[in-house]
Structure formats: structure tokens, C-alpha cells
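Quick question: what would this complex look like in 3D?
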Amino acid sequence: MARGIRVILLGPPGAGKGTQAKLLQDEFGVCQISTGDILRKAVSEQTPLGKRASEFITRGALVPDAVILDLVAERLKEEDCAQGFILDGFPRTIPQAEGLEGILKAKDLVVDRVLSVRVPHKVIVERLAGRRTCKSCAALCHVVFDPPKKPGICDRCGGELYQREDDREETIAARLQVYDTQTAPLENYYRERGLLSEIDGVGKVDEIRSRVSRALGDVTR
Ligand code: AMP
């Protein structure tokens, strides 16, 4: 039986991290933590966290590190994270990576591997502009590359599909710039720690899944 894994998926918005994270979650029985999904749920439920985060998300800016670190520390305490985790969209800054190290150290845990999913900006813009998200289960599809069987309806759960406000073309450019300046430096941070594997994120979902498997080879054995 496969053992638990602790993996970070790094990469720009639209790199396919969410899709791969859900596949790994199902395969390894570990939790998937998408800070973006958690924040969007909080926004739709209008919780204090949601009210605070909404303005940052709409602009394509990052929510403050301290808010995110609290949220992740709480989530990691939950039962479904006991065997490990797939982090998707976190950490996004060096202080978040340092904060994560501290949270894990207190539990005597470390990250097994960081996968950097690489996709050229041009491809990302095409992917994000056509991306639709399920309001109920957060599953993703694409109006051209992976259309739902019934327009506007999620294949997975029958929920309503919508276009995220920050997936509109105006905001995509801002999010990519934030990625280049604030998140891309994490590649070096994890490379220096011997944890980084780079993966070509262009191709079909199952092709990328195979590359992920190869990169995780020694971790999952
Ligand atoms: P995502 O779904 O990962 O693309 O995240 C959507 C938005 O949520 C981002 O553009 C940020 O505004 C916010 N967000 C998600 N994760 C983080 C994070 N780790 N740090 C700061 N902001 C975040």
C-alpha cells in the first residue's frame, strides 16, 4: 500500500496544479489543501476571513501571509491530513514557505517533494480565460479544451459552473505578474533544499499525471 506523501505543487495560476492535486489526493488518500478554494468558499459564505480576502482576490493580489499561515495551520490539524497533504497554491511567498517549515517542524514533519509545473504564459492565458469552476465541488473544466457534457453544468457533481472573477483577462495579467515577482523565487528556495523537481505542464492531463508520477518516484515507493 502506498504511504502518505507531503508534496507542494508550485506553478503559475492555470498550470494545472488543482487538477493534479485532486488526482494525487484520490490516489494517496491524503488531503488536498488549496488555499484559493478555501478563500473562495469563505468569500461566498461572507465569513470574516472572506470579507477580508475578497478585495485582494478581486485585484489578483496576494492575501497577507499571516492570514494564510493561520488558515493552513488550522487546516493541517484536521483528521484527513494525518497521512499527508498536497499543497496547491501555497506557499506563494518566501515568508509563507518559512512559516510552513515552522508549522511542520513543530509536528516533526518535512515536505517530501516540491513539483514546479511549468507552462508558458501564452498557454496560461488561453487556459484561464476559458476555465470554468464548479460552484459546488470546485472541479474545473474548459469551454474549448475540456467542455462539460451539458453547458454550464459540472460533469462531476451536477453543480453550476461559473467563471471566476479573477479568471477574466484583465486580472490574469496581474496574477501572472504577482507570480513572477513573489512566487517564482520559491523555485530557488526549494532547489537549494534539494526538494525541487520541474515538470512540463503542457499536454494532456494523463500525460502530466505520468510526469508527476515519475518525479515522485522515490517518494512514493
Ligand atoms: P488560486 O485559486 O490559487 O489561483 O488563488 C486565487 C486567489 O486567492 C489568489 O489570486 C490570491 O488572491 C488568493 N490566494 C490563494 N492562495 C494564496 C496564498 N497562498 N497566499 C496569498 N494569497 C492567496
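Answer marked as accepted. The beta strands are 6-10, 31-34, 85-88, 113-118, 131-134, 140-142, 161-162, 196-200.
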